[in-house]
């Protein structure tokens, strides 16, 4: 094998894991939110809020991890608006999610105006895992990353365990599949939906903040450039399963990394077409995934997008 | 007669109001230890509301509840569960995509964070064994039959340590044989000292299973009686408030020619499972063919295939000799096929549109409503007025959404719309479900009237009594096939029961 | 604790009150956001009003923005009634602009102005319609989520525009086409500097036509039935495929028309920034209008005023334009939240406290008495 080709491949794939993590965090959050029966289409807005407040926090404190936490907190607060309108007031979830995206875009470009073109001096740094990072090929790609990437791995396993092996998961799935039955069994439907919508929001915020606190340490209006929407589509691709979310997110991370690499390499392919690639791929994936979900009769939580009201006659 | 310590549960002066109606009006109810106590009443009498109050789903506007002499405040199903109350709803509170184990531990506080599936499975099997039945703890709910699902419900409540079990019309979805098995389980539980509240409106069951009966009518308490000291007829009178007609008058008319013929029909249900298995049925003009069967044996799919709402994989449907297999609803309309679906607001009517919009749903493409690409709304109004007057439908505002109408008036509107098209074939699916006595009688009268006019009527119902009351012949459906057809006038209920359970095949 | 009780019917005043309160609350929420940035909201709102309605010219500029908003929002009123959530007006607008501009830039120079303009408008409309047919087909055949698809198509459309602008349509590497020839410029209707153009009449006509379609025609009735209850629609003999696709074509076509009209009359050049974000504003307009196309005209003008004022405050007061998005989305939040009061009575309840130690009132005696009464009645 040509050593230079090997090293390029490793750096591309390591970049793919980073880009993949940006998508993984919101996708994981949305998997759980949708499992509880709430459709949050506002991921793009929440990621922007996370990205901006993450940047702001990192700027003011000089600590990118504090920034990340602030970004998550801000997005969680914004997700609470969604939960309040959709769960308590039973509003239209599609339109509320859309409003959330417009809100996030507007808010961050309003507050972010003064920060455009400023850069962070300290960013989240990689920390190779001793031992694992020495595994040839796999080590530098998967285990010479930063803490956020590792947190992504852990969350995938944790959420899978939580969903399918614990009482919390049973309650969560029951709420999204049949809220009335869950309610009759004493599960707190409203609380569950609020909780997972807010967790989903925080993770979307983490995805956004990861961009500004690590990968692109500066502020730009609309810096997430549609990744929130790709994450929404990935949830369908993942069939509401955390492990599939990991596969999907890293696959799209690879497309993103490949696209950047090709642009950097100055290939003759038009850069507009290259930039379009992730969206085109998502477009294809959402169609294929929908067809698979339909054939398999699995996946979509039955009461996704349907508000629950107990006392009605 | 009894000491207070023997009373398990006392509900006193329970009042629950909903917008427009008082569902429970100062109702008193007392349950002894180790008794099976039936709550009897017609649809809308307030039985379910009272039990939902007990289960913590509704909170009463007035009144109080004591369990074993202690005052309790039941705010949620969880509160009720903690006090040993377990309710088995008519529509099972099960999550289809979860396994039996997961459904059983759903919402349970006693379980730890991690689910020990093995130990829960053992406990489930132990409970099942105690009452002599079997259930696969690892099966997903959607893989189970209705009877099995009901047992999962029972296990659920027992698992949670229920001492008071409420069963809301548990036999509505069972065959007579399955009902007997259920009664066996209930008697076993009673002998263990559990108290059981049994909600029903079927008098024969009430007489055979219960120790005492409490009768509700229009939200009010009529009284509580010992079963041994009362007859079926007296109970019926308490329930309805007057003597009941057990059989409707019918003219003897000559059977017309063949109207509907379904041959070797095969179709999938929504889950992609074959729901109709080479089904054959013929209905003649001037007859009501009742289709009996336990829910989920393909009745819905049969109706949908005939009305063009579901695709037939193979087989033929003919109406008056014309092939209408997989025809469009338009073709079927001109062939004279009309449909009263079970799901009034889901299929029959458009809840958020007005009475006028709903009245013309099947006619908007025809004269006089049709005016080029436009709709003549004045003509539509006149048409709706005609229906309202002719069928005596109480419509407060013609332009208000139909969802505000009462159940009875919705059904009348639906019936009016379909009858007004002069059907040749009328398919009625659970046409009286959820209606009060008056509306029920009205609907049945209309069906008979149509029959007398020579229309072929296919009546699909889970209520065997209803079928026997109005049908001329009864077809029994099991697993997507007609397993037998019997004359409704000379009928052997046990025979029908066995056929419903798939135990007996067709007899010539 | 909040409790909700279903209403039998919605009082008329609520239908009016909820949107008005939503606007006021939305402005209030916008103020809070501004206060955090040490911006005086009263001055900003004052400047917005002045920037939108201050003079005949500024008002005509407001109307310039209102034109595409009207065209797009009335089309959305139709599809949203059918519960087909097309949020791809932005992409349809862009594709419309590209298709129409193709003729303007590369069409035969000798063609007469009316013919060229007509062809441009038709081609733009067709382009937008084509872009809307894709999600409609995917929806009716395979039930693919139209929200995600239309959104992705927005991004794809943006990159297609980018592709052309940095490619053969740009001039010397700048993402700017050559100016449209006079023949390819949609006429303006007021003396300069006003840029208000005859697209306004397209918009008003579209609103009236869509209103008639919804209220008076069989197709409109079909869309209403389909949006409320698909199974009932099928039983009524409504062709679901045809209805969804025609409605999608109408809404996409109007968005495409908006794109080419705005480009040809206002910008007179194809560039990267062709104000395609109006596609999102139009969604808000349609929703605020309660999906009534005639009301959507008025709402479009109001939102256009907000946008026009937003440009002004950005230039004059250096207040970032993002605040407009904040205000618009806040209004939408309040409206969505407020919808519940039109369906339910909202009741504030306190937890009832139960007096401790109260004894059951029904005991042995009562139960016996009940038994007696029942027997007596039988």
TrEMBL record, chain A:
Gene Ontology molecular functions: transmembrane transporter activity
Pfam entry (one)? BPD_transp_2
One cellular component (GO) term of this entry:
plasma membrane
Residue ranges spanning the membrane: these are 38-58, 65-85, 97-116, 137-163, 194-215, 227-252, 272-293
Q: Which UniProt keywords apply?
A: Cell membrane, Membrane, Transmembrane, Transmembrane helix
Q: Main localisation, per the record?
A: membrane
Q: What is the topology of this protein in the membrane according to its UniProt annotation?
A: Multi-pass membrane protein
**Cell compartments where the protein resides:** Cell membrane
- The answer to keyword Transmembrane helix applying to this record is yes
Q: Which InterPro entries match?
A: ABC_transp_permease
Question: Repeat: present as a keyword of the record?
Answer: no
Q: Which PANTHER family match?
A: ABC TRANSPORTER PERMEASE PROTEIN (PTHR43370:SF2), SUGAR ABC TRANSPORTER INTEGRAL MEMBRANE PROTEIN-RELATED (PTHR43370)
Its name, as the record gives it, is ABC transporter permease
Per the UniProt record, the source organism is: Candidatus Cryosericum hinesii
Automatic annotation (TrEMBL), chain B:
Residues forming the ABC transporter domain are: 9-243, 260-504
Recorded topology in the membrane:
Peripheral membrane protein
As for subcellular location, the record says:
Cell membrane
Which species is this UniProt entry from?
Candidatus Cryosericum hinesii
Molecular function per GO:
ATP binding; ATP hydrolysis activity
Q: Which UniProt keywords apply?
A: ATP-binding, Cell membrane, Membrane, Nucleotide-binding, Repeat, Sugar transport, Translocase, Transport
Supply one GO CC term from the record.
plasma membrane
InterPro entries per UniProt: AAA+_ATPase, ABC_carbohydrate_import_ATPase, ABC_transporter-like_ATP-bd, ABC_transporter-like_CS, P-loop_NTPase
Any Pfam family matching the protein: ABC_tran
Name recorded for this polypeptide: ABC transporter ATP-binding protein
Q: Does the keyword Coiled coil apply?
A: no
> Cell membrane among the record's keywords?
yes
Automatic annotation (TrEMBL), chain C:
What GO CC terms are in its UniProt record?
plasma membrane
Q: How does it sit in the membrane?
A: Multi-pass membrane protein
According to the record, the segments passing through the membrane are 12-37, 57-80, 92-109, 115-138, 147-169, 196-214, 235-260, 280-303, 315-338
Q: Name one GO molecular function term.
A: transmembrane transporter activity
Q: Mostly located where?
A: membrane
Which of UniProt's keywords are assigned here?
A: Cell membrane, Membrane, Transmembrane, Transmembrane helix
Q: Where in the cell is it found?
A: Cell membrane
Spell out the protein name for this chain: ABC transporter permease
Q: Which CDD domains match?
A: TM_PBP1_transp_TpRbsC_like
Enumerate the InterPro entries for this protein.
ABC_transp_permease (IPR001851)
Position of the signal peptide: none
User: Does Translocase show up as a keyword for this record?
Assistant: no
């Amino acid at each position: 094998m040509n050593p230079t080709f090997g090293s390029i491949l490793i750096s591309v794939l390591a970049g793919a894991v980073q880009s993949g993590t940006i998508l993984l965090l919101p996708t994981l959050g949305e998997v759980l939110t949708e499992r509880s029966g709430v459709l949050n289409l506002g991921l793009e807005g929440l990621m922007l809020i996370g990205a901006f407040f993450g940047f702001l926090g990192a700027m003011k404190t000089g600590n990118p991890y504090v920034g990340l936490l602030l970004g998550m907190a801000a997005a969680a607060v914004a997700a609470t608006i969604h939960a309040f309108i959709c769960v308590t007031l039973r509003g239209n979830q599609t339109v509320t999610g859309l409003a959330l995206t417009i809100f996030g875009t507007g808010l961050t470009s309003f507050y972010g105006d003064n920060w455009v073109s400023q850069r962070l001096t300290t960013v989240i740094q990689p920390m190779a895992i001793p031992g694992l990072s020495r595994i040839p090929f796999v080590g530098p790609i998967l285990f010479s990353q930063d803490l956020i990437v590792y947190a992504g791995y852990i969350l995938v396993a944790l959420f899978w365990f939580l969903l399918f092996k614990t009482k919390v998961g049973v309650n969560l799935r029951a709420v999204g599949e049949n809220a009335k039955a869950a309610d009759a069994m004493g599960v707190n439907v409203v609380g569950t939906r609020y909780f997972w919508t807010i967790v989903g929001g925080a993770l979307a915020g983490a995805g956004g903040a990861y961009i500004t606190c690590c990968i692109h340490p500066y502020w730009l209006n609309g810096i997430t450039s549609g990744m929130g929407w790709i994450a929404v589509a990935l949830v369908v691709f993942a069939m509401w399963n955390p492990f599939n979310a990991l596969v999907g997110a890293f696959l799209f991370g690879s497309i993103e990394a490949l696209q950047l690499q090709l642009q950097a390499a100055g290939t003759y392919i038009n850069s507009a077409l290259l930039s379009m690639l992730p969206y085109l791929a998502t477009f294809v994936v959402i169609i294929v995934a929908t067809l698979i979900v339909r054939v398999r009769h699995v996946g979509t939580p039955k009461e996704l997008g349907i508000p629950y009201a107990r006392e009605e006659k | 007669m009894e000491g207070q310590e023997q009373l398990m549960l006392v509900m006193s002066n329970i009042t629950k109001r909903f917008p427009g109606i008082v569902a429970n009006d100062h109702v008193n109810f007392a349950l002894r230890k180790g008794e099976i106590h039936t709550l009897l009443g017609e649809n809308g009498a307030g039985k379910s509301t009272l039990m939902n109050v007990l289960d913590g789903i509704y909170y009463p506007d007035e009144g109080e509840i004591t369990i074993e002499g202690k005052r309790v405040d039941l705010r949620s199903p969880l509160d009720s569960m903690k006090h040993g109350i377990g309710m088995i709803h008519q529509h099972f509170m099960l999550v289809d995509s979860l396994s039996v184990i997961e459904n059983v531990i759903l919402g349970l506080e006693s379980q730890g964070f991690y689910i020990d599936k093995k130990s829960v499975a053992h406990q489930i099997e132990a409970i099942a064994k105690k009452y002599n039945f079997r259930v696969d703890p690892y099966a997903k709910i959607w893989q189970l039959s209705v009877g099995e699902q009901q047992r999962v419900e029972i296990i659920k409540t027992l698992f949670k340590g229920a001492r008071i079990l409420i069963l809301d019309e548990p036999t509505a979805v069972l065959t007579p044989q399955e009902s007997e098995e259920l009664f066996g389980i209930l008697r076993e539980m009673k002998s263990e000292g559990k108290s059981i509240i049994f909600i029903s409106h079927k008098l024969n069951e009430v007489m055979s299973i219960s120790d005492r009966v409490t009768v509700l009518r229009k939200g009010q308490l009529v009284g509580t009686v010992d079963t041994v000291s009362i007859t079926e007829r007296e109970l019926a009178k308490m329930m309805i408030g007057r003597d009941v007609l057990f059989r409707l008058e019918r003219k003897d008319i000559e059977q017309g020619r063949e109207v509907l013929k379904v041959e070797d029909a095969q179709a999938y249900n929504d889950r992609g499972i074959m729901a109709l298995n080479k089904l054959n049925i013929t209905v003649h003009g001037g007859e009501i063919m009742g289709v009996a069967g336990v829910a989920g044996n393909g009745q819905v799919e049969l109706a949908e295939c005939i009305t063009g709402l579901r695709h037939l994989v193979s087989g033929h449907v003919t109406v008056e000799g014309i092939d209408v297999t997989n025809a469009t609803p338009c073709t079927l309309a001109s062939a004279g096929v009309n449909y009263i679906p079970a799901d009034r607001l889901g299929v029959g009517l458009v809840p958020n549109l007005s009475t006028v919009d709903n009245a013309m749903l099947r006619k908007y493409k025809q004269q006089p409503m049709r005016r080029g690409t436009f709709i003549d709304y004045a003509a539509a109004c006149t048409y709706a007025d005609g229906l309202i007057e002719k069928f005596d439908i109480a419509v407060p505002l013609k332009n208000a959404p139909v969802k505000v109408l009462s159940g009875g008036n919705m059904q009348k509107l639906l019936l009016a719309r379909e009858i007004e098209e002069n059907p040749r074939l009328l398919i009625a699916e659970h046409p009286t479900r959820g209606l009060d006595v008056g509306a029920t009688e009205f609907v049945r009268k209309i069906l008979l009237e149509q029959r007398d006019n020579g229309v072929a009527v296919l009546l699909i119902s889970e209520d065997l009594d209803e079928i026997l009351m109005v049908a001329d012949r009864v077809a029994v459906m099991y697993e997507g096939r007609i397993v037998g057809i019997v004359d409704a006038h000379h009928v052997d209920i046990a025979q029908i029961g066995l056929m419903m359970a798939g135990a007996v095949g067709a007899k010539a | 604790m909040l409790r909700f009780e279903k209403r039998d019917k919605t009082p008329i005043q609520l239908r009016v009150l909820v949107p008005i309160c939503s606007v006021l609350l939305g402005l209030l929420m916008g103020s809070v956001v501004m206060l955090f940035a040490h911006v005086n909201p009263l001055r900003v709102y004052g400047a917005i009003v002045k920037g939108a309605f201050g003079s005949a010219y500024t008002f005509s500029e407001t109307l310039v923005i209102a034109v595409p908003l009207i065209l797009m929002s009335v089309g959305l009123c139709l599809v949203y009634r059918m519960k087909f959530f097309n949020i791809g007006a932005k992409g349809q607008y862009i594709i419309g602009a590209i298709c129409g501009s193709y003729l303007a830039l590369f069409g035969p120079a000798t063609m007469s102005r009316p013919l060229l303009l007509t062809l441009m408008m038709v081609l733009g409309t067709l382009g937008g319609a084509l872009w809307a047919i894709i999600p409609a087909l995917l929806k009716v055949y395979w039930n693919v989520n139209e929200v995600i698809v239309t959104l992705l198509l927005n991004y794809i459309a943006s990159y297609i525009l980018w592709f052309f602008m940095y490619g053969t349509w740009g001039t010397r590497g700048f993402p700017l086409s050559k100016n449209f020839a006079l023949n390819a410029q949609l006429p303006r209707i007021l003396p300069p500097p006003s840029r208000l153009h005859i697209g306004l009449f397209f918009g008003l006509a579209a609103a009236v036509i869509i209103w008639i379609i919804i209220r008076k025609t069989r197709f409109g009735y079909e869309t209403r039935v389909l949006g409320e209850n698909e199974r009932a629609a099928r039983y009524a003999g409504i062709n679901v495929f045809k209805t969804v696709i025609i409605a999608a074509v109408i809404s996409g076509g109007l968005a495409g028309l908006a794109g080419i009209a705005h480009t040809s009359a206002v910008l007179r050049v194809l560039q990267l920034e062709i104000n395609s974000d109006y596609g999102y504003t139009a969604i808000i307009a349609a929703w605020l209008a309660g999906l009534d196309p005639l009301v959507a005209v008025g709402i479009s003008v109001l939102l256009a005023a907000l946008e026009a004022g937003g440009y002004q405050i950005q230039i004059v007061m250096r207040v970032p334009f993002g605040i407009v998005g904040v205000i618009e989305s806040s209004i939408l939040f309040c409206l969505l939240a407020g919808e519940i009061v039109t369906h339910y009575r909202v009741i504030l309840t306190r937890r009832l406290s139960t007096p401790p130690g109260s004894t059951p009132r029904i005991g042995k005696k009562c139960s016996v008495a009940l038994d007696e009464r029942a027997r007596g009645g039988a």
